[in-house]
Amino acid sequence: MTDAVRAALRGQRIELPSWAFGNSGTRFKVFAQQGVPRTPYEKIEDAAQVHRYTGVAPTVALHIPWDKVEDYTHLAGFAKEHGVGLGTINANVFQDNDYMLGSVTNPDPAVRRKATDHLLECVEIAAAVGVRDVKLWFSDGTNYPGQDSIRARQDRLAEALQETYDALGEDQRLLLEYKLFEPAFYTTDVPDWGTAYAHCLRLGDKAQVVIDTGHHAPGTNIEFIVAFLLREAKLGAFDFNSRFYADDDLMVGSADPFQLFRIMHEIVLADALRQEAGIAFMLDQCHNIEPKIPAQIRSVMNVQEATAKALLVDHDALAKAQDEGDVLGANAVFMDAYNTDVRPLLAEVRQEMGLDPDPVTAYRDSGYADKIVAERVGGQQAGWGA
Amino acid sequence: MTDAVRAALRGQRIELPSWAFGNSGTRFKVFAQQGVPRTPYEKIEDAAQVHRYTGVAPTVALHIPWDKVEDYTHLAGFAKEHGVGLGTINANVFQDNDYMLGSVTNPDPAVRRKATDHLLECVEIAAAVGVRDVKLWFSDGTNYPGQDSIRARQDRLAEALQETYDALGEDQRLLLEYKLFEPAFYTTDVPDWGTAYAHCLRLGDKAQVVIDTGHHAPGTNIEFIVAFLLREAKLGAFDFNSRFYADDDLMVGSADPFQLFRIMHEIVLADALRQEAGIAFMLDQCHNIEPKIPAQIRSVMNVQEATAKALLVDHDALAKAQDEGDVLGANAVFMDAYNTDVRPLLAEVRQEMGLDPDPVTAYRDSGYADKIVAERVGGQQAGWGA
Amino acid sequence: MTDAVRAALRGQRIELPSWAFGNSGTRFKVFAQQGVPRTPYEKIEDAAQVHRYTGVAPTVALHIPWDKVEDYTHLAGFAKEHGVGLGTINANVFQDNDYMLGSVTNPDPAVRRKATDHLLECVEIAAAVGVRDVKLWFSDGTNYPGQDSIRARQDRLAEALQETYDALGEDQRLLLEYKLFEPAFYTTDVPDWGTAYAHCLRLGDKAQVVIDTGHHAPGTNIEFIVAFLLREAKLGAFDFNSRFYADDDLMVGSADPFQLFRIMHEIVLADALRQEAGIAFMLDQCHNIEPKIPAQIRSVMNVQEATAKALLVDHDALAKAQDEGDVLGANAVFMDAYNTDVRPLLAEVRQEMGLDPDPVTAYRDSGYADKIVAERVGGQQAGWGA
Amino acid sequence: MTDAVRAALRGQRIELPSWAFGNSGTRFKVFAQQGVPRTPYEKIEDAAQVHRYTGVAPTVALHIPWDKVEDYTHLAGFAKEHGVGLGTINANVFQDNDYMLGSVTNPDPAVRRKATDHLLECVEIAAAVGVRDVKLWFSDGTNYPGQDSIRARQDRLAEALQETYDALGEDQRLLLEYKLFEPAFYTTDVPDWGTAYAHCLRLGDKAQVVIDTGHHAPGTNIEFIVAFLLREAKLGAFDFNSRFYADDDLMVGSADPFQLFRIMHEIVLADALRQEAGIAFMLDQCHNIEPKIPAQIRSVMNVQEATAKALLVDHDALAKAQDEGDVLGANAVFMDAYNTDVRPLLAEVRQEMGLDPDPVTAYRDSGYADKIVAERVGGQQAGWGA
């Protein structure tokens, strides 16, 4: 079994978000950090560091317009030179002044047109650089009961999704994300997986649901949703992060590592870890108070550790105990894998890949952090621009 | 407008649950009350009292086997004599010792067979007494991570649902209820509306989703689900009750009357109040510490008041403000209806229907409560038999 | 009774937050609105409009340094000319770059010194303008388990509070606010009322707890806390706002008007509405998408309506039903008040006070909104400066 | 360091609840298990098995009247013969019919008298068998707004607590437990740690707070409460169990093992693990679907594993990183301990104690389970008697 586990771990792929390298914060304060990228190019340089030391993070998701450049092909080439590639294109229809009352669900048709045009632009950018996935998250919703018609907004949403879907190339996908609340506080227009699922079902096979691990109501069993969407062949991607309360966007695995293990267990059970299964495993995080590059390295490692544990579950013993109704026995098999210290195994896997067994230390010793602090002086640091 | 409102209120139909008249409680204690029914016949007598004073609660839902009788036709006749009719048949596959690890999702095929047979029996009973709806709620789920396969349980669930669905008569419906947790504490097999919706979609037009207002995670926007399922033509019924924390099963409208108004607003907006729309409005409550008959009367009145307010919303003014993006204006139109005291209107409606304008006092003055305390001595009081 | 109710309503005082008139938003976007104040002076002009039409909002809370001016006495004089006065001084120790890892609980003593000095400055400002209350809310906390010592941070907090308390003048008070989360996501240093209470108890009589209605875990019964702190004579103030999920900071009374009524019921029961009781009733809200002045007017009216209903509760009938263990009867007395439409009563009260019975329309007709849009061109709009 | 860790683990003491060996369930169903004790004596026999294989569970908490016997001294002697002792006496004032509307907070003084008398009886029983702790949990509360006076109930509670406190012997303690909800659904009379703390503070040094890990609102940071109460010297005991949603009472460590580690970290940091610190570490669980004795063994082991990890935290390195504001470094030190597989260490500790390194297997191989199934035929199985 170990060989298969090692192979699976070597073959794992985790996508990094360009925006994790820029400044971020809360509505109360964005604390700027030294050495933060000023351009999409510098973000890619930083992301390349994460891949350099982990070996499993070879692509970088972009956020448009945060990562708007003149020439995306040039950016893709730059990424390639740095050992990485461009990943999912994330549309952003929440920061224009026109979007105060919604983007694609806005009561004003002109605003909806503008928003949908942006979605189409994202499809085009993705096509231009040969990227499969366009990810849609809408901040759309309402703050007050009665503010707008829930149903009318669904109709408008469906229309914009359809137009975007129709523009997809043969090998492209539309990934639809849901979120319980924030920034809308009474309703969001895609609040839960059921809503995203229903829309994707109507759109067709190229529309898939994204699970952001921070976007649920308290008490939601996320691995159930993972298992259910896998059964329905409607799970397209993850946005990994951690939360204690709301959409805290902390490092994945830092708040509830056992939950992350349970999620990866469902992935492994459904044989959905391998790339051909078509699940995109992305990070989507904020590093408000910790340095960004090592935080991304740590996050990648956390996903790796949860995955390694999930791969170690003895599926035969588990199935046997489950069939026999042996509640404690089945749980014991499951916990046995979780309680295993997989760090030595991962250190070995890294060495097999020609990497330092300790990515955090290797990065720290590289001097890169000091270098960017020294070099990136002046200019406008990247951030959300809220 | 007032005439239409009055007509709508006169035509409203709310179904009572037979089990609300029996004893109920928590795992800590069931406090028996005096005068509680000993038989399904006595439950129907009590339910008939609620209809007598409210005029809008003409049917009584049954729970099998709690309401098992030799001859359902005889029970239906008895109900008719008392001015009411039999309503939804509720299956119960959570109280047999065999169901400790699940009913239709149990790993043991023999247990699944037994559970499915009970569902089929419920379809038969419904057919025998000419009842349209069979409602399925499953306590099935797991308490511990790893205890059973989430996916295998979905497969088993789908199989049992399909067999039950196939047994439905032409005019019958299968109503599928979801619940976040309790009595299962790690996963339930139908935890949310998305799961119920997906199953109903595969089953076909005769399968519809039930919204129990107490079965959601904290923060869930229930009226969104109402609006969404109405748009998808997949909302079949409500189980009305109130909650502050979990599935508290308090009197509907007692914990958050504004939420109940918002739910009824979506119903009114979609013109789904009238009976032809096919939404069954049922109560599903426990009266652990308050007397049961007046608690049911109060609950019916709470639904009526929320409905009356929803009917008073000025839809034209609301739509205009919404179209103009007038956040405060739209909210004000909405709140204007909610803040109206509709009790005088409902008193008039009752008088138009030949009823006492004050059902609570009329019931209290009737002496019925004393009568059943005096008469129902001995025997085994009805309860959940947990 | 009505005379007493009217008198109580005429005597009610609600404090407005200066920051509600500036721009605000979420981490995703701050949508700037036209006509927004550029200076503390303009904020006071706007606040004065709210008082002008409601008659019960005669003071304006300041946030330092958002409302920093050269001469606070001059600002107080300006307020007086506009018919209002300065209210609670709110310290702000969450926006300096030094506070990334905490202010008064920061591991670095120099940062703690700086933060405490700011608190002392706020006490001085309050003293200078004759304001009783200094309100402290700390964004301090940690994002990751292990990040800092929970206990050491309590020690540091206690030290800073003590130093601030010692600087209070005879008639001054320190108001300590608690908050479950945001912007800190693993622990906050004052997460709940118990923590605030324990600190205030040690400090002494001039330290009191602030209840912000949006700062609790889901399911928290806020009116219980109100009743408990009143019993302990440790309730100093409210920060009123509404929430559906987290600290949404919506208009008070807009998400759960019944909860607001229940809170005001505890206030009325304890005879704590009158000003001599020393409870400061403040608004603390964001108007991210709605116009700010009418939103404040609506919020004041919502508090008035909840108060009027609370004043209408028949305390004798309630106590009688409670003593008799009449669950439904007691609840009915309570709901009878809540279900009353108090808007006509409040319209009359306003007329008695020489005000327009309809503050929203009166404001709208005044032309003030157009005036400030026209006049306030150029300059830097006020906001949180996050 | 390892020697100290081993010594600490050998010296750890975990108390078992007698009721965990009886039947339990939800309001929907109690599934009876074979071999379940019929008497307090048989419960003690079962508890002794748990201690026999773990070596760290030498006391058994009793619940009065569930464990009512003629002669408690005789019961204590029986326990001693079986290698264990009697532990905390738990009062039960929630199952008499008189307590429907509350016990010590009931509006009826006669009911309050009866309830307080029971508390006094528990103090006497504890004194009779030389037990230090009497633990009070009240199911008291209300289901409906207005049902009773929140404040009057606090007055009544304070009175009963005072009378009970006054009856304590010199070395006895009153442990006060809090709970957010269930079985009361609108308010409980001791909903949170702040309420319990305030009452204990007034009572005096012999009154301490109990933290039941399942009794909090979603999102509550329990280890903060642990650290805070330790700082205030007001933490008396734990009721350990796990929850995903409400008070699920699952095996401790099964839902969120990382949380249990964080709790034990605060205990270790405050040097409160050793018995002289006076913290009682009790289990309080239901085993609704799993066999009870091995579930208790597993629970004890889960606490041991969390404790071992907490003991392995490198406090010097942690403090250094915290002082330097090294967010990632401090978290890494913390996680390093958590990610360690401590099962080999605990196996060694058990061998040092003369125990089998694998308690679960040792118990299973003992044949005890079969023996009790065969022997315990007839009689009334123990349960909650709800």
Automatic annotation (TrEMBL), chains A, B, C, D:
The processes (GO biological process) annotated in the record are: L-lyxose metabolic process; rhamnose catabolic process
Concerning Pfam families, the annotation shows: AP_endonuc_2
Q: Which SUPFAM superfamilies match?
A: Xylose isomerase-like
Domain of life, per UniProt, equals Bacteria
Task: Report the InterPro entries cross-referenced here.
Answer: L-rhamnose_isomerase, Rhamnose_iso-rel, Xyl_isomerase-like_sf, Xyl_isomerase-like_TIM-brl
Please provide the record's keywords in A-Z order: Isomerase, Manganese, Metal-binding
Q: List residues of the Xylose isomerase-like TIM barrel domain.
A: 70-266
Q: Does the keyword Transcription regulation apply?
A: no
Which molecular function GO terms apply here? Answer: L-rhamnose isomerase activity; metal ion binding
Instruction: Give the matching Gene3D superfamilies.
Output: Divalent-metal-dependent TIM barrel enzymes
Q: Which PANTHER family match?
A: L-RHAMNOSE ISOMERASE
Per its record, how is this protein called by name? L-rhamnose isomerase
Task: Please name the taxonomic classification of the source.
Answer: Bacteria, Bacillati, Actinomycetota, Actinomycetes, Micromonosporales
Give me the gene this protein comes from: rhaA
